[in-house]
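Archive entry: two folds, one per protein. Generate the first.
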Amino acid sequence: MEGAERREDLRMRPKKLTYVALRPDFSKLGKIQDISRGGLCFQYMTQEEQSGDSPNFNVDIFISDDGYYLPSVPCKMVYEKKMEKEVSHPIGLETRLCGLQFKKLSNKQTGQLSRYLDTMTNGEV
């Protein structure tokens, strides 16, 4: 069935502005739109002609003003798309959405993610 929801986990919105940065060279930096135990969606700006990254990589998740930092989370890119009806940007920039699926997390990472979901989100999207 086309367009069917495939997520198994409840998606939640962050209460505070939370960032995601792709490792190792931080080629993409954006803000989380929604997050769950299984993955997240984030929005970022990029040059239109930028080439794609490897489908598997690590990301850092952080909140700049409260010290929350979850480093080197293994992920798989599920989708990346240009946002519809976006505001025009100068110098050839566009806004994109990127969906990531978390891969095998360490016990420490799982605990940190659970703490974030329990204290830093507003519930179901």
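Generate the second and append.
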Amino acid sequence: MDNMLDQMQEVFRDVFDDDELTLAEEMTALDIDGWDSLMHINLIIAVERRFGVKFATAEISGLKADDQNVGTFCRLVAKKVDEKA
């Protein structure tokens, strides 16, 4: 998971244009300046391109639920990458 978190951190830094951004699994959109609905879509697109995966609409919407965080996002990406392999 640490490797996925590191890879995701690179994507987050690019999308949010913040080279100092350090991700933690428990972080949510509220913890990251500028993470609004538009940036959420930009982030999804960047992750899809970086990892060569596609998200269903329900998955994208579900990532904004109250019980979701960076860790759950990383696990979803890791699962999709594993399924693709």
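Annotation attached to the second fold: The first helix runs from residue 2 to 15. The mean pLDDT is 93.
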